[in-house]
Amino acid sequence: MYQISIYEAKTQLSKYIALLESGEANEIIILKNGKEVAKIVPSINNKQRLGAGLKFSESLNFKLKDEDDKLDELFGY
């Protein structure tokens, strides 16, 4: 967790975004006058967080099964 001022967030935002992307930071806390005012966290679309806790490799084999196979017919699978 990193705690940074609003000024630092404004001037070095790309640096902190890169830390989130790489997984080095899991959240960035932005402070105003020493008090927390905002939090930046990785996007849910980040592959490391895909599948509500599943690892990316585990999520590749996931397939939604429709008992009546109507979805398969509808989408041509």
Question: What is the N-to-C succession of helices and strands?
Answer: EHHEEHH
Ends distance: 44 Å
Find the count of extended strands (DSSP E, 2+ residues): 3
What percent strand?
15-25%
Q: Provide the low-confidence segments as ranges.
A: none
Domain module tally? 1
Q: Major sheet, described briefly?
A: 3 strands, mixed
Description:
By secondary structure, the chain is α+β, with helices and mostly antiparallel strands. The protein has one domain. Helix content is 34%, strand content 19%. It has helices at residues 6-11, 13-22, 56-59, 70-75; strands at residues 2-5, 28-32, 35-40. A 3-stranded mixed β-sheet has the order 1-2-3. The chain is elongated, with a radius of gyration of 19 Å.
Short summary:
By secondary structure, the protein is α+β, with helices and mostly antiparallel strands. The chain has helices at residues 6-11, 13-22, 56-59, 70-75; strands at residues 2-5, 28-32, 35-40. The mean pLDDT is 77.
Give the tags.
77 residues; alpha+beta; three-stranded mixed beta sheet; 19% strand; elongated
Q: How do the helices and strands line up, and which of them pair or pack?
A:
Blueprint: E1 2-5, H1 6-11, H2 13-22, E2 28-32, E3 35-40, H3 56-59, H4 70-75
Parallel strand pairs: 1-2
Antiparallel strand pairs: 2-3
